[in-house]
Queue: 2 jobs
Job 1
Amino acid sequence: MAAAEIAHRPAGHEVKGNERANRHVADNGKGEDLKDAVVGKVCVRFAPEPSGYLHIGHCKAAILNQKHAQKFKGKLIVRFDDTNPAKESNDFVENILKDIETLGIKYDEVTYTSDYFPKLMKMAEELIIQGKAYVDDTPREQMQKERMAGIESRCRNNSAEENMKLWKEMSAGSEKGLQCCLRGKLGMQHRNKSLRDPVYYRCNPIPHHRVGSSYKIYPTYDFACPVVDALEGVTYALRSSEYHDRNAQYHRIQEDTGVAKVEIHEFSRLNLVYTLLSKRKLAWFVMNRRVDGWDDPRFPTVQGVVRRGLTIAALKEFVGEQGASKNLNLMEWDKLWTVNKKKIDCVCPRHTAVIEGGRVMLTLTDGPEKPFVRIIPRHKMSEGAGQKATTYARQIWIDSVDAKSISIDEEITLMDWGNAIVKEIKKDQDGTVLRLIGVLHLEGSVKTTKLKLTWLPETSELVSLSLVEFDYLITKKKVDEGEDFLDVLNENTKKETAALGDSNMRNLLRGDTLQLERKGYFRCDVPFVRPSKPIVLFAIPDGRQRRVLM
């Protein structure tokens, strides 16, 4: 289905002077303006199918719809395209509404295609009586082959009486009805294959999440969308340009059903490298437990990317830079994460962590006899980040990778403390650094040292951390048409590293963003509960990282 999609004024409508003055005709080159739009008379709609959570592709459609509604002081409808009971649920409806709220989308009303089921059925029956639609019991695979070859179905010229008889079988969900579908009689020789007698209704006995078992037949998106758009007074249907060939079908259905014509405004779909946006394919990952749910941080869903640390402000800016251009682009995630970094770097607090495995103790022989505490800023350039308590002690921990890079008698800088000189390096027979001994040299200049190291005091107040990095779910930038995504699955998409963190991280809340100095940006997914349970921090890409998992 189209992630989003728009009614001409009635023929002969007279444009008055003030209305002409209210028209927006300028275009900034991105195809953003609506053709002949009039301030105060624009109605758009965002129409997701409740068969999964909103993903980053839907975001572009939602944001663009809201932008046009606000620009032209118009109306925005959120309509759930709930025409396939086999895939849909109330849970998806609730989470989509949650996602829309997260995006800050302000709408005027929520509707459902299922609200129009009686009207749609009546229209379908009128088409049958008028000879503009027919019931076909051709097997689906054969029907597809005939459509591709432009071959008319043997059922195409059945009488209206015969079609109505089979329509009633479909409506009852009988054995015969289950073998049938309703097709529009548009023409099987069209060069545009979307016009080759498309399916309007299918028989489906599965209960619907809103209307239960009231119906055994359901309209296809292709039939319901243009009709309901017109019935709801939509003036501009925003549709991604991948549906361009189906625009003629959209307008033909409006013509045959006698509803108002709705103007279509196209935009390019937001595609990202190494990313699947098909909800059917995303559902496969959930059902096969390749991810932890629709909000998994490896998923391109709104809840997934937010959980990984993407800000809505960055997402909106990224979408805004592309505008409503019809050019199809495969975007790099790095561009989005770079925008995000600019949003968080200036405000997120700084903390310290040391990787637990192989950490090395540095003993400062002239260090403080008793540990002492100083209150320092959590972000030197942002007072709003608050303050933190830093403990200074004679024995401190540093990362093993840092310990390996130190030479005897080398002067180093201990961040937020000062300089020190390493006098002894103790190693085992394999050359692994076991411990270091040094002395403080606080009068030394940080400008002269090569190594600026993060550290933690040896104290029971340190907290356990689990640092989690994620990779793409597939190993290919773009899955080509006809290619099976199962052939390019990434088997290694999650890496967890145990670490120790400064005691101030006990105060982190779920959703807080922070920077672990010299390690990158993180989002708190599981805050501190008790010492035996680690704080879980999800790594936030910064636009420079590349395939970090090995």
Note: The first helix runs from residue 17 to 21.
Job 2
Amino acid sequence: MSTQLSVAIKISILSALHFDKRSKRLKVNKKMLWVSIIFLIFTATNAVELSGILKLFTPNDVILSAAADNMVSKLEKEYMKYLETGVETPTFNYLTMQLGSSRNGMDKYVRNIHKLKPVDEFFVCVVCRAMVGVIDRTFRDEQNDLNGPKGDVVAKKIAMDACQRLKVQTKEVCEGLFDGHWPILRYIIENTSVNAKTICSFYIQFTFCNVADHPKFNFNLELDDADQPSIIASKSNRGRKTSKDLNILHLTDIHHDPLYEPGSLAECDEPLCCQRHKSLAIGTPKAAGYWGDYRECDLPWHTVNQAFTHIRQAHADIDYIFQTGDVIDHMMWSTSMAKNKVVYERVVKRIYELFPEVPVYPCIGNHEAHPLNLFSPTYAPDSVNSHWLYEFLYDIWSKWLPADTKETILRGGYYTALPRPGYRIISLNNNDCYTDNWWLFYNGTDMKTQLMWLYETLLAAERANEYVHILAHLPSGDDTCWNVWSREFNRLVRRFRETISGIFNGHSHADEMHVHYTSGGYAVAVTFNGGALTTWTHKNPNYRIYRVEPKTLQVVDHETWIFNLTAANIAGAAESPRWFKEYIFSEEFTDDLSPAGLDNLLEQMADNPRLLEKFWRFKMLSTDQRLRKGCNRSCMLKTICRLAVTVNDQRRRCEELTARLIKAMDSSYE
């Protein structure tokens, strides 16, 4: 350790000491001590790497939060100096160098925020807050160039400089993202008082970066539930299998990539590969497979078409199809209205061609939008409005949807339909809870409109003695779903627990489920997640078939079908993939799929790690790389917790189950 660093740490220790007059003892402010040490280390020596320091802390650590605040302040200040003078100070170069070298490759693009390691969360938090802060301060300064005719040019210069200096992504990706998203971000900055801390706190919920209070974005639905009886037990109404059960196909996250090229480079610097540089990949392990690839790649058309054709041939008894969003690929920096329309129409029309007599009920995924993830309120100006998407989708969806769905689809991409008497489907566009949807920053209470429509629709269904299936792309418990929306949605689920027979999601690319609980810990509903047809990232393609009891519309069983991508690519174009039934839920776990029955299963998983590990294998769709890596202790705890969370800051049942699982795992090692 250098003398400079040693002295710095000693000074930090002394600065954190204080004399307590009451106890007449010398005490240490631990938080102040660690924060001081961390930042004296950062500034005292270039020999210590930021990534090494961050490995000492957890994502929720108060020390990490203080460290982020300090670095954001410094980086924003130094960047403003650089923009004003053109001079790169030693502090500026050091901060940007440390951040640029700290991130863990592709992780922040192929993982959700809640799955990142602390070093990558720290990078995303600091860069988000500092650079949005720079643009915010510069843009709102009336004397600055950003307010003049050169505003867009200056903003792009700032963004591209930060992109390359901090090694955020390739120039192509950063330029594409800026060009697509800047007009909307500029409109939001011009028309709201939202600041960098609020924006990035939305984006990175439930970690050390979520430090902003959001009173303007909080709301409560006014529900007519005063006369409702107290919930004193889990919902145990159990549907039984019958000879007249409905068969519902669940397709989700198809992610067709029209540019996929077999043999192209599957390991690239961009968030999506398998599109180009075939000459560099041919004859190497980096070459993309014929039927798809486990790496950061989506599906070629021949795989999408083969999957649909197989389903048509293997399942002649499908009654309905649920398609829960994300037809468009992950080429997030190169979307356009024209491209998205062509890809979406090609995929959906093929479903219609192969299943001409089967009603299809879709919902919108976050990838359907252009720019990616952005869904505007109805009153936004035409230049930044999403109405083009809703008009396009209604034209396609209207093949199966009744005419009275047009009003709400054009308003916001949601609708309700009655496939037959007593059975109602409600399809939500819950991208208005998605934290990557920047329109949340504009007016967080806009999301209340659709939830109130959902309440009124459920109330009408209750009075008509109908049973309801709800379709929505995002699971409400994802940390990428704004917790206020999730909280109010779950209030509706609890209120209409006897009316709602099932909830169906996508987005996570995992074959999983989520149990909804009351504040008292009673299970009242279940969300089923259909996995994903795409292979992005590290998964076998899959689809699900639900067996649904025809009276109460409860799911009484389900089965998942997959093909092994490794085997399919070895055979290549000469042979179609060999789809097979991976598992039937009732045969592997339980035949009681009521909320109470599945809550009981979660307890069994918590007490029996082997049972939970089997669930995890199916959740990962038996993918070769996933199985080789296995599920360690941390993975097991996250797996059991995710099953029991549908509002991310309500984790009582998660904590109970993880405590039991820890005890069971510890016992197994004794």
Note: The two ends are 40 Å apart (CA to CA).
